[in-house]
Amino acid sequence: MGRIAKTETFVGWIVAVLVTWASLTAALYCTFYVAPVEEQMGIVQKIFYIHVPSAYAMYVGFIVSAIASLGYLIKRKPNWDAVAVAGAEVGTLFCLIVLITGPLWARRAWGVWWTWDPRLTTTLLAGMIFVAYLSLRSLGAAGEVEKRFAAGLAVFGVLDLPLIHYSVQKWRGQHPTVITSKGGGLDPDMKLALGLGFLAVTLLVIVLIWMRASLEKRKLQLEKLEIKINQQQWERET
Amino acid sequence: MREKISTTSFMCNSVAVLIFVMVVHVFAVDKTSAQETGAEGNEKQAQIPAEQIAQNKNIQPKANELEEKAASDDPSLDRKTAFRAVKGPQAETIEGKPLLFGAYVSFLLLIGFFLVRMGKINGANQASIRLLEQKIDSQNEEKKTENNHAAR
Question: Does A40 touch chain B (CB under 8 A)?
Answer without folding.
Answer: yes
